[in-house]
Amino acid sequence: MKNLKVSLAWQILLAMVLGILLGSYLHYHSDSREWLIANLLSPAGDIFIHLIKMIVVPIVISTLIVGIAGVGDAKQLGRIGAKTILYFELITTVAIILGITLANLFQPGSGIDMSQLATVDISKYQNTTAEVQSHAHGLMGTILSLVPTNIIASMAKGDMLPIIFFLGPVWAGVIIPAGNAPRTAGDGISFHL
Is 25 domain-assigned? Predict the structure, then answer.
């Protein structure tokens, strides 16, 4: 029998269809909905999110190391960095414009009677709000949050921007004086990926 191999795109499409079918079924069967969500779907979703969070930091670190080591020249690295920032800003601007346009066009939430919605107790978020408001916001606060005080703690928390900020100068310091040494490090990491 021939080995049946389904492409990733078809697997994703199949999972979406199965999710829609399961959601439609559970919508009309409230007796089994609570048990299935509490005992199967919620734990499976939490495990999936934990697995994604677990792999993000190693993937970002190895991608940056391999990418920077592959460039080799500090001037070329600066040009690539500038192009990357420009690309990021353009894509972010397009996403914001598209989101605002579609939200104004489709007006999600219009037609919902807000008085019929259940009230939510937000008292548990008051401490978080006070903590966020106590920190300095603005340009200087953002710049200060980029510089890690403890890189291991930033890795443990999954703070990507301090990790990226830390790796940039470290690898720039390796590229400029060492010549081909970073390429060897990058080859070693890309070999293991």
Answer: no
User: Would residue 170 count as lying in a domain?
Assistant: yes
Q: What does the CA dihedral 98, 64, 83, 145 come to, rounded to 10 degrees?
A: 70
Residues 6+ apart with CB under 8 A from 135: 141
| Residue 94, pLDDT score | 96
Cα separation, 73 vs 179, in Å, equals 8
- 66-121: per-residue pLDDT in tens? 777 777 666 777 788 788 888 988 999 999 999 999 999 999 888 877 777 667 77
- Cβ neighbors of 158 (< 8 A, separation 6 or more) are 53, 56, 57
Q: How far is 91 from 105, CA to CA, in rounded Å?
A: 21
Radius of gyration of the chain (CA): 24
Count of structural domains within the chain: 1
d(CA 85, CA 140) in angstroms, rounded, equals 19
| DSSP letter, residue 135 | S
Answer whether residue 79 is part of any domain: yes
For residue 160, is it within any domain?
yes
The yes-or-no verdict on residue 141 having pLDDT over 80 is no
pLDDT (tens digit per residue) in 154-189: 988 888 888 888 887 777 666 656 555 545 555 555
Residue 93: give the domain boundaries: 54-106+136-193
